[in-house]
Amino acid sequence: MLATPFLAKPVFYGSDFANWGFIVLLILHVLPAVVAVVAGLMALRYKKGSDSHIAWGMYFCWAMMATALSGIVLDVIRLSFYVAENHQKYPGYGMPSSYPARFAFFYAAACVFYLVKVVQHPLNFSRESTTQQPTRFPWFALGLFLAGTGLSLLISARYNPWTGALWIIWTFMLIIFATGLLPLCSKKWPAFGLHQHRLAALSLAAFSWWGAVQGFGPAIYIALKGADSGTTVYTGDLPGNFSPDFFLFLVAWLPPFLIGAYLLRRYIRASRN
Fold first, then answer.
1. 51-62 per-residue burial string, b: 16 or more CB within 10 A, e: under 16
2. What is the pLDDT of residues 179-190, one digit of tens each?
3. 215: buried, middle or exposed (CB in 10 Å: 19+, 13-18, 0-12)?
4. 16-45 vs 51-78: helix axis angle to the nearest 10?
5. Which residues does residue 10 pair with via DSSP β-bridges, in sequence order?
6. What distance in Å separates the CA atoms of residue 170 and residue 48, rounded to the nearest whole number?
7. Do the beta carbons of residue 2 and residue 94 sit within 8 Å?
C-alpha cells in the first residue's frame, strides 16, 4: 500500500493510477505551502510599501490560496472515496487525521480566502483610517463566523471535541470577527486601514508557520524513528472523553500566533512614532 511521503498515512483508492494521482495532489499542496512560508518571511524582511515587499506579499497570497484550495480537494477526496480504507491504522503507517481535524482544516481554508481578500483590499494599504468610506455589511465574514459556530457545535455534539480542532476554529473565528465584524460593533476600530492589512497578513503568516512545523516536524521524526508499527483502532470519527492532549495541542498551536501578535504590536507602535 502506498503512503504519503511525509507523514506515512495510508493511500488506498482502488488502483495504482488513483493512488499516485492522490500523491501528486498532495505534492501540489505541499509545494505552495513551502513557498508561502518563504514568501511571507521575505515580505516581512522588506520595508512596507517597497516594490520587494509588495511582490513577495503577492507571492505569499497566491501560495496561501493554492495551499488552501489543494487542501480542500484533498480532504474532499479523503472523506468521499474509500473512506474506511483510508481511515484506519495499519502497521508501519501513520494514524489518519480525525474528522474534527478535517473539518477544522476545511474551515481554515475558507478563512484563508477571506483573509487574502482583506490583505489585498486597496483601502487597507492606506496609512490613514478611511472611516469616511461606506462599510458594506460583511456577509462573508458573518457567514464564516456562523459556520465556525456551527462546526464547534457539531464537533462537540457528534465527534470528539478534545482533539484540538476547536482551537483552530476558535482562533480563526476570532480573527474573522476582528477583521470583518468588529468595525460594526465599535467606532474605535475602523473598517479599513493598515491595521486590517497587518492583522490579516500576519494571521496568514502565523498559520503558514504552524503548518510548516505541524507537517515537517512529525515527518522528520518518522524519517528518523520510522512509523508506528502498532494497530491502534481509529477513533477519529467517534465521540471521545476529555484528554490533557487538548491543552497540549494549544501549546503547539499558539506560539506562531503569539509571534504574529508581537509583530503586529511592534508595527503598530512603530507607525505611531
1. eebeebbebbbe
2. 888 888 877 777
3. middle
4. 150
5. 3
6. 30
7. no
Which set of grid coordinates corresponds to residue 257? 500566533
Cell numbers representing residue 143 in the block? 457567514
Q: Is the pLDDT of residue 132 over 60?
A: no
Please report, to the nearest 10 degrees, the dihedral formed by the alpha carbons of residues 96, 98, 99, 104 taken in order: -110
- Structurally, the chain folds into a number of domains equal to 1
Amino acid at position 189, single letter? W
Q: What is the pLDDT of residues 87-122, one digit of tens each?
A: 999 998 989 999 999 999 999 999 999 999 999 988
180 lies in which domain range?
2-272
d(CA 233, CA 226): 19
State which amino acid sits at residue 40: G
φ, ψ (nearest 5 deg) of residue 106: -55, -50
Distance CA 28, CA 48 (A): 30
CA separation for the pair 86, 108 (Å, rounded): 22
